[in-house]
Amino acid sequence: MRSRSADEEHRTSTALELFFDLCFVVAVAQAAGAFEHEVVIDRIGHGVVGYATVFFAIWWAWMNFTWFASAYDTDDVFYRLLTLVQITGALTLAAGATKALENSDFTVITLGYVIMRLAMVAQWLRAAYSDPDRRRCCLRYAAGILTVQAGWVGRLALAHEGGLAAFCVLAALELAVPLWAEQPAHTVWHPRHIAERFGLFTLIVLGETVTASTVAVRTALDTDAPFGSIAPLAIGGILTVYAMWWLYFTYDVPVQLTSLATSLRWGYGHYIVFGSAAAVGAGLAVNIEHIGGHTLIGPTTAAATYTVPVALYAAVLRVLSHKADPSRTLDVLWTAAVLGILAATFAPGPVLVTGLIAAALVAAMLTTVARERGRPDGRRHR
Length: 382
What we know:
Largest sheet: none
Number of helices: 12
Structural class: mainly alpha
Shape: globular
Number of strands: 0
Helix content: over 70%
Order of helices and strands: HHHHHHHHHHHH
Strand content: under 5%
């Protein structure tokens, strides 16, 4: 398991990595569905906290594997078996997502998470044995991950209040492991491979959002809900997802992954990008259920479950992409769009208004890029 070259040509995602993503999106769907249920029964605070904690486990395990694979993917039998163990952990985590959100029972989800992370420890130990130049780095990863897993298991014995505080501490320790482990020697990642992996997972999460939205619309129509009341939500949802896709794939990501600091900033920021993208589908479903009178929440709260995730997605995406294009005009446009989406929470037809604002942002961005760069087609880097 030697370190792979960062200049390797034609480096693309493997079939195993794609399978890994598809299995992980099961956990994403379970978390989003449980979050929707909590909001519908007016347990919003409980649902937000539960969703944030569950999604952290999904995102962090996925990101760690992705970065490791970029550096050490050998695609041999032992590597594949350990990856399948991680997938098994992800499916276990998915099975426990509903209990974690609804009942604050983190037993199953912790089991799934620990399975994934212990398999990752085995991968790092193998890399340490095979790559003497980065042995200390790999051993630090293994030791750090293993130590924090003991903390996650111990957290199960704490009461809910103590468990939340322990989560914050343990999550901070998880985030600190790469900063500590990379000090002796940096692992070598492939910028274009990393960019492709994050882009593919974004596509899968957006696809899950489309699926959840479609199911919600179909369910509403099956209950004889007036099409006229559902149509604005469906149109707004479609416009929003299209705009989210367009905004994400506007910039050439690899040019931004030039150092450990910028790469960690990119990866850590995707906790909100992935989490908010998955929550958009749940928010649309909540608004459709509210139209049918099947929720215990008010219209403003229902609207916020949709507008806030979209605004978070747009705001964080602009921060992450600012290095690729530090245009002040774009900063103003994105800021105005984010504020407009948040204001749509209090407007009639908030989902449709959000979709129109998101589409307008894409149009304004393309116009600005074409004007500033003198390119009539508005494309950049592609």
